[in-house]
Amino acid sequence: EVQLVESGGGLVQAGGSLRLSCAASGFAVDDYSLGWFRQAPGKDREGVACIKTSINRTFYEESLKGRFTISSDNAKNTVFLQMNSLTPEDAAVYYCAATPRYCDLDMDYWGNGTLVTVAS
């Protein structure tokens, strides 16, 4: 059974950093594409970043490049999202998702999300 469990969310001051983790089970992360998405209250879900380690490719929402970094630890079967210089606009529920295909907005498996709150 495929499972994705996010952790690392919380309250941070504007300008601060957080690192989110997504622990995967039921598949090997280096066989899949794994992505981070977020959804703020009243807004549509948006893609944040995606990684496909088998071809050493990462993808980012253009506006987040330079502040957010996605990475994976295949030995731990975990994917991370390092978020720096956070602003209140980054506050959202962050979801980890996976697909055996290439990175896509329509992913096959989803975690339950972790809440990120940014205080101004």
What is the fold's blueprint, element by element?
Elements lengths: L2 E5 L2 E4 L4 E8 L7 E7 L6 E7 L4 E4 L7 E6 L4 E6 L8 E8 L9 E2 L3 E6 L1
Parallel strand pairs: 2-11
Antiparallel strand pairs: 1-3, 3-8, 4-5, 4-9, 5-6, 7-8, 9-10, 9-11
Folded structure, characterized:
It is a single chain. By secondary structure, this protein is mostly beta strands. 0% of the residues lie in helices and 52% in strands. The chain is built from no helices and 11 strands. It has strands at residues 3-7, 10-13, 18-25, 33-39, 46-52, 57-60, 68-73, 78-83, 92-99, 109-110, 114-119. Strands 2, 4, 5, 6, 9, 10 and 11 form a 7-stranded mixed β-sheet that branches. A hairpin with a 6-residue loop joins strand 4 (33-39) and strand 5. The radius of gyration is 13 Å and the shape is globular. The mean pLDDT is 96.
Task: Jot down its keywords.
single chain; 120 residues; mainly beta
Cα-atom radius of gyration: 13 Å
Multimerization status: single chain
Given as residue ranges, the uncertain stretches (5+ residues, pLDDT < 50) are none
Report on the biggest sheet.
7 strands, mixed
Number of β-strand runs: 11
Task: Kindly name the structural category.
Answer: mainly beta
Mean pLDDT across all amino acids: 96
Amino-to-carboxy terminus distance: 40 Å
As a percent range, the share of helical residues equals: under 10%
Shape, principal axes of CA atoms: globular
Following the backbone from N to C, one meets helices and strands in this order, namely EEEEEEEEEEE
SS summary, helix count: 0
Please indicate the percent range of residues in DSSP E strands (runs of 2 or more): over 45%
